[in-house]
Structure formats: structure tokens, C-alpha cells
Amino acid sequence: MLVRFQELKEKRDAGFTLIELLVVVAIIGILAAIAIPVFLNQRNSARDAGVKSDIDTTAKQMETFYTQNNAYPTIATDLTSLPISLKLSPGNGVSITMNGASAYTITGCNVESLQSYTYDSGAGGLSSTATPVTTCATGLTLN
Fold first, then answer.
1. What is the DSSP letter of 4?
2. 3-state secondary structure of 73
3. Could you give the residue ranges of the DSSP H alpha helices within 13-138?
4. Which residues lie below 8 Å from residue 61, measured CB to CB, with a gap of 6+?
5. What is the pLDDT of residues 67-112, one digit of tens each?
6. What percent of the chain is modeled with pLDDT above 90?
7. pTM here?
8. Of the four listed, 8, 44, 68, 92, which is most buried by Cβ atoms within 10 Å?
9. Which SS3 state, helix, strand or coil, does residue 93 take?
10. Enclosing H/E stretch for 117
């Protein structure tokens, strides 16, 4: 009889109870609820950093063009003659607007984050604030 009782006890302890499984599932759910928004926020931060980097690279190319030609580019074909070809990050759009002959504004955004950043050569550089936009065209344009 004692052997039979030990066999039953071993069979009963071989698995998990329903309560134990529910607790584990609840803990995994709580961890996922915390981790997913943090992950999505990091993706948007990376997209915004890519836009800022593309704007900075474009500004450096504009200054390089000015140094070599003593003038800023005035037409889109001038951009193709830059010493380093501009390759934007996927989904990014950069638009250059000339403000007279001595200054320019660069606006950039990403199609997924829809945050626009502006670089104004006359005002001293990249604006630290993002502006929400409804659409974002990809590629490089010179206005």
C-alpha cells in the first residue's frame, strides 16, 4: 500500500498545475506589455536619427559644392556633380530650398515616423524640434 501511495504522489508531481501555468502566462504578458512600446519608440528614434544624419550630410555636401564652385547649387543637376553622391537612408526624403544666393534651408522627414526636421544655414544649423507632417516624399529634391 505504501508503494502505491508513493507512485501516485510521483505521478501527481510530474506536471504543473493550472494555477502555476496561469501565473507564468500573466508574467510573460506583463513583460511583453512593457517591452513592446519601448521597442517601437526606439525604432522611431532610429528613424529620426537617420533623417538628422541625412540632413547633416546634405548640408556638408552643399558647403563642399560652395567651396569648389564659389556658389551654392542652383539646379538639380548641380547636385549630381557633388564630390560624394548623396545616398539617403531608406524611407527618408530631403528637400533643399535656396534662400537667395547665400543661404539655404534643408527639410527632411521619414515616411514612417512623419516627423520633419529643418536645417537653416542662415540661422546656424539644425533645429532641435520636430514638426509633425502628414506626408513625406522620399528622395532628394532641390527647389
1. H
2. coil
3. 18-69, 76-80
4. 79, 82, 83, 84, 86
5. 888 888 877 666 666 655 678 888 898 988 888 778 899 999 998 8
6. 24
7. 0.71
8. 92
9. strand
10. strand 115-120
